[in-house]
């Protein structure tokens, strides 16, 4: 056997060292390759867009998600970022400079722009530094599309605002019971819940099967119909397919494009293309419709329909409550007016029952009617139909001197018409009213706008007239006031008739008393001269004469013999 020489051993050691170095390099390469494959797998598996940049902002890698989701391609590799996507410079140049200079991650949240297809998008951009030791050698750009999430958050925020608005509106519209105020609150708050370019509130007529526009908002563009022209418009439900369908089915109708909807005959010419109608339903009855319009077609969706219906239901309840309150208040007012009227009539009846004087009766009737009708002037006249005269008995307000005016019926058409027709007459003092001309001499003032003449009728004959004057601008006597004046005048007429009957009764009583006293006075004596004297006294008392004489006829001498002569003086 031969021993290895020192040279051979040295050569073997050199070869062994080279072999071990090669093995180590091969192991490290395998590890590096495995890590690279692992990193690539990690990068590719991340469901976000990733772009790897070197320090010069050259694109070194683009992951599959970036290519599939954001329409990038491998052709971007090797290009500078801002050369490949110039639009990124506006919002990424500054944060990239910070990352390269300070090595600190940067984020740009919710950048709104158009995506590769032109649709609106919202994205977050994350920038992370790549390091070798303490040196920044590149940047990892990560893209996160948050469009759907932002939309969802916006929808949630919108719904929260809408729900808050609905809650606020609900409290506001129930805080008032005035119909006009409820309508204003409803329309003013509606835009916070459901946007519109124009809205009209249709209410159902109580008299006919039709709807009328009670109020409107919007319609502010020059080519739109003005709100003032819309309010008051009516439509018969039977001749409107839209409203008839809504009344029958009690549901929301969303005409997304009136140009293509056969229910809108002139839809192609309409300015507002999307029409949304929500019925106002209260207690199972449709009391109106809330119609919203937008200029762009297909604007309103299912959410808007639901919100509009919810809002309309609240508005319907508020409007119905306001209507019931108005009816209740109207009934209470009517009862109060009726009570006041009964109190007035009772007061007049009591006052008339306490007097039998004709002038007092006329004055009470005139004063009470003038106060009740708020007349500034008036007069009460006694009618003498036989002589065709009207004589003023009393004036309102009373003057310093008693009235002494008389009017011939033939010269005053208004007075004659009331006396002949037995019904009240309202005279308007206008230039084209011939009846008014005959009244001017009767008036005490020249600023009278209207007069009311009320006849006082007893047994089918007019025994008197009341004249009431009004001077206020736009002030006129209402039918209820005319009826009240006629009622009081009728009470006065009855009082006049009662006074007349009382006076006749008094006269008859005096006649009977006189006859009884005469019979009693002549029966107590048989002396002819005494009888004549007593008869003379009774006659003076009975007829109210100043002197009386009793003559006996002497048929023999054909003479009248004075037997009793008495003077009241």
3D structure, described in words:
- The protein is α+β, with helices and mostly antiparallel strands and 569 residues long.
- It folds into five domains: 1-43; 46-143, Beta-Lactamase (2-Layer Sandwich), CATH 3.30.450; 152-324, 2-Layer Sandwich (Beta-Lactamase); 347-501, Beta-Lactamase, CATH 3.30.450; 506-567, no CATH class.
- It has 14 helices and 19 strands.
- It has a six-stranded antiparallel beta sheet with strand order 8-7-6-11-10-9, sandwiched between helices.
- β18 and β19 (559-567) form a beta hairpin.
- α6 (179-193) runs antiparallel to α9 and α9 (302-353) runs antiparallel to α10 (358-373).
- The longest helix is centred in the middle third of the chain and has 52 residues, at 302-353.
- The protein is rod-shaped and about 230 Å long.
- The termini are far apart.
